[in-house]
Hints:
The complex is a heterotrimer of chains A (288), B (340) and C (422). The longest helix of chain A is centred in the first third of the chain and has 32 residues, at 3-34. Chain A is built from eleven helices and two strands. Chain A has 288 residues and is an all-alpha fold. Chain B is built from 14 helices and two strands; from the N terminus they run αααααβααααβααααα. In chain B, helix 2 (35-60) packs antiparallel against helix 9 and helix 12 runs antiparallel to helix 13 (294-309). In chain B, 56% of the residues are buried. With 422 residues, chain C is of the alpha/beta class. Chain C is globular. In chain C, a hairpin with a 2-residue loop joins strand 13 (390-395) and strand 14. Chains in contact: A-B, A-C, B-C. At the B-C interface, helix 1, helix 2, helix 12 and helix 14 of B face helix 1, helix 2, strand 2, helix 3 and helix 4 of C.
Amino acid sequence: xxxxxxxxxxxxxxxxxxxxxxxxVGLTIIFGVMDIVNFSHGEFLMFxxxxxxxxxxxxxxxxxxSLPLTTVLLFMLGVLVYKIVIRKVINxxxxxxxFATFGLMILFRGLAQFFWKPDFRLIEHSSVAGTLNxxxxxxxxxxxIAAVGAIVVTALVYxxxxxxxxxxxxxxxxxxxxxxxxxxxxxxKMFALAWGMGAACAGIAGGLIATFFPIFPEVGANFIxxxxxxxxxxxxxxxxxxxxxxxxxxxxxxxxxxLVGPQYxxxxxxxxxxxxxxxxxxxxxxxx
Amino acid sequence: xxxxxxRTEQAFLKLLVAVLVLIVLIELPREVQSASRQNLMILILxxxxxxxxxxxxxxxxxxxxxxxxxxxxxxxxxSTVLLTHFGxxxxxxxxxxxxxxxxxxxxxxxxxxxxxxxxxxxxTIAVASIVQIIFTNxxxxxxxVGLTIPMDETGxxxxxxxxxxxxxxxxxxxxxxxxxxNFAIEKSHIGYYLRAIKDEPDAAQSLGVNLMxxxxxxxxxxxxxxxxxxxxxxxxxxxxDPNSVLSTSLSIKMALVAILGGAGTLFGxxxxxxxLTLIDExxxxxxxxxxRGTDLIVxxxxxxxxxxxxxSGLLGFVQERRERxxxxxxxxxxxxxxxA
Amino acid sequence: xxxxxxxxxxxxxLLAIVLGSTVASAQQEIKIGVIYxxxxxxxSTGQELKNALDLAVDIINNGSKAxxxxxxxxxxxxxxxxxxxxxxxxxxxxxNPQVGASEAERLISDEHVVALIGCYNSxxxxxxxxxxxxxxxxxxxxxxxxxxxxxxxxxxxFRTTPHDGLFVKNFFEFYKxxxxxxxxxxxxxxxFNENTQWGSETSALENKLAGEAGIAxxxxxxxxxxSTQLTSEVQTLKAANPQVVMxxxxxxxxxxxxxxxxxxxxxxxxxxxxxxxxxxxxxxxxLGKDANYIISREVWSLDLANHNPLIKQVNDLYFSRxxxxxxxxxxxxFTGVMVMADAINRAQSTDADAIRRxxxxxxxxxxxxxMPWKGVKFDxxxxxxxxxxxxxxxxDGKYATVWPFELAAHDIVWPMPKWDQR
Lengths: 288, 340, 422
């Protein structure tokens, strides 16, 4: 195991982890604001990927250029999902909420298969295709761009939540819904916003990874467990937590796979996750 | 207000009906010729039993475990490995599986019960996933290839049958036993404490209830029973692999079944299992052949619909309706008396 | 507490469902149950197989002038049963073994099918065929390659396709012939497999035979299916510096793997894959140029038509309908249902045991098949003894047979040009 293989893996893990972070940021916003476990989050990622694909295939729009469109589409989808389904289970027991989002997960996969068939798609020859070689480390250009995109979006989200009025209102609703309402913040709007943002983040992640990852109706399944782990590890509701946790998980997965064995890579991630939870039950940056 | 005499009469009537229903259920498979209908009934009973077992810790104690498949898988694998590698009878193997699952549950409880709500649920998913990964890579238990149970020796001694009826009876028996355990817990002081832990954990703790001990007890019981279900599954399907007995989607189904029917009620999971299994099999039978995913869409819409409109489960919904009716009648009575 | 009403309602519900009677089916048509993954992770393959089945049954029932050499192409159903037509009853197993078993039950007891064909995924074939064995209905498997399926001592299970044991043997025969006839000495390989039943079995066989052939295995890497990335796995392979990477992956992972090889610069002299994802129609279509020079074990190839005109005829018909060529999977499924039809025809009956005996007596010569096999003849374990695998290399975006050398349509390209030198 030479040192450049280790460094290479570290870099790959970092790039991967940043993608995980972006997916998890969306998930953690939803959790943080309304305490709902969104089992269908992987499907927002999937729709983001399909959006990038169809723009590329039908409109010949490069994935980088179609990203804004993907963002808007997924934001609208998130709000729609909130208004039609989630709003009705806000005050229901946790179990019903799980049930509802789980149903959405199956529904979205079924719809994707119905409309677009189960075939695998790939976006070839996008503007970011190719490999890069920096200081002897090789990595794919799409992965690097996706990672940069993830950092940018996470930073924007963080700034939005801490510096803008709407963002602060969102955070306020997350910490204490009743108090926020007393201050005149419309919870309804905040919830819809949370879902829109959450879906949009996952959608952007999807649009970014569509440049190098195969696209098919069930692709959400590959990411959802990891997304949950990242959110938990970072602490429910904490965007910064999701960011750092994502990176940690990505690196641990790749390095663990390399050093112990790829068939155990998920087990290592999960074991680390459990260890952290036992030591710090609210996650790394979660509220105690 | 019911008099003691009325209550005894009611209890007697309930017992009578229960016995009648039980007789009907036992005789059912003989009336039904179609093997696939019999299979459907067995699937319902298995799903119901798992839901009832889950209910002990998920419904009554309010600890939402989404990793229960670990116990199911441990049960299935223990009895199967003991059978195929050591020739040990599956009846004994089932007990061994149950005990191992209970042991595992102690580990799970010790590490996870400090966690709250979503964190606990995620931790249970993580534990179950780790178990699945271990089994997938462990050649002693067949790794990814799985294990097959030989079909040549049949009969009650071997827990392998050609006909469906004995499987049905076994599943029914296990379900009744699991329901009995639930009932006993519900009526005992354990049940009382579990409900306290679910609804007012801080108050309970301040009154000196050892939260950890009772949660652990609930989980151990639940895991033992779930493991028995695992053995029954293995003996019926005669083939297990990490995908079929250790996947997270099974954990979700166990919880779903209880939620759908009404978590925290005795028969809720049974109702939920019946409805869910029927929906599952029917949508696949009617729509599945086209391959367009229509059956998934219908299934999903039904699940979402029930989650949204019947949040306390179907049984819960029915019970609430009756409560409201009773309340209305009581009020009418009071109004009448007041007017008189 | 549960009231009387609620209890009665529950019992009533169960009774109502269960006492719905089934209607006996008419005898004009012969129902064959077909269990394949029509949704779920293997759905795109499942659809392909469905196309093949529909085509075969259409030829049998309605005839086809374009394929005169094919049995039953006169149409009009099965002559041995006075022109009874075949009706396929489809079931979706969603790549789930328990669902496969349930569907098998349903097809047998509710739909009263006379036989079953399925299931592509080896672990689903396992459980579904078990149901058939218990219920004494013939089960024909055309695509599952797990060797253990015919090691169960079953009487009602028949498999037309060769299994992994034979396919892996083919690999090492290939290495031997490479040395003898092409002067290429393979001394060092790496094994890369998906961590499922099929992948693990293949890997175990490959490790074993490599040891016997004196070929060094630099790395044997197993990865969990549906990974989000394969970087550390490919790193490990690269570090072992193999001449050949022997890979077993389904489509999604195969695509991801190839992209990762390219990204990390893993350019062995040969990538030798065990079919599955690598021979799926999507593989070339999605990877484009990057798919070139990859070699896969296959069971079928279009250029075999050069040696067997029947193959071209049937493929042209398939192409005219579905705008795609046959693949090894769809060709085998097509062959499977043809073999079943042949057996039922000879049985001249829809009685399960008669069909079973007819299957046992099957003896179809190679020139009546669209496969590069010597024929179809089952041994006592139900395995077709006359099957064979081939190796194809992707050249200019098309599969070209390169082994056995006698059937080759193209010379093998060795070593594989590096990714950035294409």
